[in-house]
Amino acid sequence: DIQMTQSPSSLSASVGDRVTITCQASQDITNCLNWYQQKPGKAPKLLIYDASNLETGVPSRFSGSGSGTDFTFTISSLQPEDIATYYCQQYDNLPFTFGPGTKVDIK
Amino acid sequence: EVQLLESGGSLVQPGGSLRLSCAASGFTFASYAMSWVRQTPGKGLEWVSTLSGSGGSTYYADSVRGRFTVSRDNSKNTLYLQMSSLRGEDTAVYYCTKNSRYGSSSPFNYWGQGTLVTVSS
């Protein structure tokens, strides 16, 4: 199975800050990497697919980059409504696997 | 508007069975693969199973293979997950998800609200 790691596991930042989360796959997954946002008590929501493509309707302050084994998710200017846990997920190989999540809150 | 509405979650004893349903609307159901993903506080998000749009191809996590069966009724726009020989570690919120493409290897672009399955005596 492909193992997905994320760092940090949690972070606190101020409104307007640039926030960066990294995700690493245990083997090459090309660009088969998605990012999801999960707010408390809600289902996950797809934000970024294929490593760098913004899902329709998602604000442009969210972005993703990377390929192979190393990926980055960025919020260019943190907003109060971005408080959530963010997960990366690979779909290059079965079983599809998720990272452990990064919890983002406001400082 | 895409909507996925799960039902069927409940408290069940170890070794018991349960069937989850997911009623889909707002898209051409048969044109997309569908999946189940579960979430536990301890293990986070775990992919469970994916079914192709036609229903002809099924994929399972090792942890559920042989115990869970995924199926769909494209005439009713409904996805199912038949769970048997349930164990405590199957306790989780189960999400029905729509894959973004017909193929099973694709992002989960819509999620239901989830249904809680608790396995306990």
Order of H and E elements of chain A: EEEEEEEEEEE
Uncertain runs of chain B are none
As an assembly, this protein is heterodimer
Taking all Cα atoms into account, the compactness measure Rg of chain A is: 13 Å
Quick take:
With 107 residues, chain A is an all-beta fold.
List the helices and strands and how they pair.
The complex is a heterodimer of chains A (107) and B (121).
Chain A: E1 4-7, E2 10-13, E3 19-25, E4 33-38, E5 45-49, E6 53-54, E7 62-67, E8 70-75, E9 84-90, E10 97-98, E11 102-106
Parallel strand pairs in A: 2-11
Antiparallel strand pairs in A: 1-3, 3-8, 4-5, 4-9, 5-6, 7-8, 9-10, 9-11
Chain B: E1 3-7, E2 11-12, E3 18-25, E4 34-40, E5 44-51, E6 58-60, E7 68-73, E8 78-83, E9 92-99, E10 108-111, E11 115-119
Parallel strand pairs in B: 2-11
Antiparallel strand pairs in B: 1-3, 3-8, 4-5, 4-9, 5-6, 7-8, 9-10, 9-11
What do these coordinates show?
The complex is a heterodimer of chains A (107) and B (121). Chain A is 0% helix and 50% strand. Chain A has 107 residues and is mainly β. The mean pLDDT of chain A is 97. In chain B, strand 9 and strand 10 form a beta hairpin. Chain B is globular. The mean pLDDT of chain B is 96. Chain A binds chain B through residues 32, 34, 36, 42-46, 49-50, 55, 87, 89, 91-92, 94-98, 100-101, and chain B through 44-47, 50, 59, 61-62, 95, 100, 105-114.
Question: Which structural traits does this protein have?
Answer:
heterodimer, A: four-stranded antiparallel β-sheet, 11 strands, 50% strand, globular, B: 121 residues, mainly beta, four-stranded antiparallel β-sheet, 0% helix
